[in-house]
Amino acid sequence: MANTSSRTLRLLSLLQAQRHWPGAELADRLGTSVRTLRRDIDRLRELGYPVEGARGVDGGYQLAAGASLPPLALDDEEAVAVAVGLQAATTSTEAAMAEPSLRALAKIVQVMPARLRRQVDALRAMTITASWAPVDAGPDPSVLLTAAQACRASEGLAMDYTAVDGAQTQRRVEPHRLVSFGRRWYLVAYDLDRQAWRNFRLDRVATMAADGRRFRPRKLPAADAAAFVRQSITTARINYDVRAVLDCPAATARERLGPWAEVADLPGDRCRLIIRTESLPWAAMALGSVAAEISDVEPPELAAVLRDWAARFAAATDDQDPAQASKPRAASTGRTPSANQ
After folding, report:
1. What is the pLDDT of residue 236?
2. Does residue 71 sit in helix, strand or coil?
3. Which of 119, 192, 208, 301 is deepest in the core (most CB within 10 A)?
């Protein structure tokens, strides 16, 4: 019984991880016969999981949307709350949270009844998220979800996309993988019109929809999707390779900058910082956030930005008495002091 239960859980995990499984391949992954697989599928159906099956050359199994959520999962209110929370997490500046949140959201939406999807969409549409990040820091969560589901299903996408030069274009692509890199989400896909692999910034997508075309995945000309995006970004003409030496331990810089920078140890509790970015002002803010002495700044364009900012900040404090500025402020009493106080 224990083996049967563990195999059933393994089967459910496989069905959630991939949209469609050929029966023979699924049985092979479970280390069982096709006949035993059919019994396990029936057991999942008895538990309420909506497993669809098809016969023939392209036959197999897939987990479909059902009339209700499976047992031992979530009730309606919990499902809506989790989905909305995961949608918000997909636009997090923490890549370690954003990517798994998107994977989990794709799994939940796949089996969510239509009535709950409508609730999720309505709640998301009527909710405004306040953030310290720039307005254009991330794509619409619905675009992320559509892209993720198309990648899992090997289904073509059609999208309205703003190219790097500002041109409005229509693209037909075969999606491969989503990559969270730096402060951006990228879709790695084969562009059918240009007959070449491309990575697309999802915050530049105006509309995106699956077009129903199924395709056999092509071989990516890179070790993986992350390597493909990294190579594309570092060779783009609009990016800057920012370098600086910080007078603080590498661990301190990593803690304050998170995943947006490469940090290498140097002798004497110093470190070398490398940031690849499209925005020099953002790089200047990142350097300032470390709160350490800075030297050997590159490129010259960033040094010019820092000099300009330094002049502006200095001008903002020129009319202050240094002696007064160094004194601690008294706690506020909520009253305006009189001249005799």
Report:
1. 54
2. coil
3. 208
Based on the fold, state whether residues 254 and 192 are members of the same structural domain.
no
E strand or H helix at 210, and its extent? strand 205-214
SS3 263: strand
Per the listing, tokens 């274009």 go with 169
pLDDT of residue 69: 52
CATH number of the domain that residue 147 is part of: 2.30.30
Residues 148 and 222 in one domain: yes
Structure tokens at 71: 């047992």
Rounded Cα–Cα distance for residues 29 and 158 (Å): 33
Which tokens belong to 290? 């470390």
Of 85 and 69, the one with more pLDDT: 85
d(CA 228, CA 233) in angstroms, rounded, equals: 9
Q: Which residues contact 336 (CB under 8 A, 6 or more apart)?
A: none
* Structure confidence at residue 124 as a pLDDT band (50, 70, 90): low
| Beta-ladder partners of 181 | 184
